Amino acid sequence: MLRHTGIGVVAGLASALLIGVVVQATPLALALYLLAPLPILIVAMGWSHRTGLVAAASGTLALALVTSPLRGLAFLVSTALPAWWLGYLALLGRETAPGRMEWYPTGRLLAWVAVTAAVALVVVVMLSSGDHAAYQERVQRLARAMLQLQLQETPSRGAGLDEDDLARIAERVAGLAPAIMATTFTLLLTFYLWAGARVVQISGRLPRPWPDLAATALPRRALWGLAAGAILTVAPGYAGAFGVALVGAFAAALALQGLAAIHDRSRAKPGRTPLLIGLYVLVFLTQGVALAALALFGLVDALTGRRRPAQAPPAT
Fold it and tell me: 255 pLDDT band (50/70/90 cuts)?
């Protein structure tokens, strides 16, 4: 137990160090910053969720003491707790028969990734911005600065736009900001979960067998989260921002389900490899457009329920 505690402390300090290097403002520092949740995820899945909790607590305490309590709290909400929580869920299982385990389904795990991303994002925004009016003003100012920079690079795009037009566009961009950030955070958390599980599997410490990722399908009741987010978007203040974030997070989860559905339905089909390569190239080149199309396909797949993980061939 003492050894596991020591491993958790080391992992938490490593995660806090990866967060701290972002002050260097270099591409390498940014890349290391983005990897900060991995140490906590790895110990949570490779040792136990208690070890992951020790890592989360030690990293938070280190940042709070070395930098500031607010930064430590932001690390706890945005990095440590999401990593620990997803590592805990990934290892949930129950014994259905002697020697036979039923592990937490990847579809439910994906739904929790979306909810975790939306909640963490809004809490971090509240911690960093205070009241909602200050947050709106800051995001609108940033959006306006980005628009002006784009117009300076391509003046033809700004033909006919006056200050009022720029203000309206900036306001719309600010309204969509929680969805854009939640979409990105959902994709990042999914990548962290996959990468952390791969590292633990390679080390031989992953308790559950590797799941059939192509069979991943959100449970239908998870779509109530998307509906709740859509309803909340009309609410004032941070409640509305949370609704927008929830819509963006579930859109990303549905896009990942759409991607999994294509993998699943193309099994043993001729030309599967060129099809998937072309799909990933298209996603990389078009980004938002491709993600929107995949999200729509994933929504249809979730509503029709034509895929069932139990019918998918076992992972080799």
Answer: very high
Residue for token digits 């959902």?
A: 186
Within a domain: residue 146? yes
User: Could you give the CA distance from residue 86 to residue 192 in angstroms, rounded to a whole number?
Assistant: 10
pLDDT at 52: 93
Q: How far apart are CA 121 and CA 101, in angstroms?
A: 34
Q: Are residues 69 and 167 in the same domain?
A: no
Residues 109-139: tens digit of each pLDDT: 999 999 999 999 999 988 887 788 888 888 8
Asked whether residue 79 falls in the same domain as residue 127, the answer is no
**Residue 37 domain boundaries:** 1-91
Looking at per-residue pLDDT, the higher value among 127 and 189 belongs to 189
Phi, psi angles (nearest 5°) of residue 256 = -65, -35
Torsion of CA 25, 29, 30, 33, to 10 degrees: -120
d(CA 255, CA 249): 10
Structure letter (DSSP) for residue 247: H
Q: What is the largest CA-CA distance in the chain?
A: 73
Q: What pTM, to 2 d.p., does this model score?
A: 0.88
Measured CA to CA, the distance from residue 54 to residue 6 in angstroms comes to 9
> What are the start-end ranges of the E strands in 13-87?
none
**CA–CA dist 31, 81 (Å, integer):** 20
Q: Give the chain's end-to-end CA distance (angstroms, integer).
A: 34
> Does residue 2 fall inside a structural domain?
yes
Residue 86 scores a pLDDT above 90: yes
User: Taking residues 160-175, what's their average pLDDT?
Assistant: 73
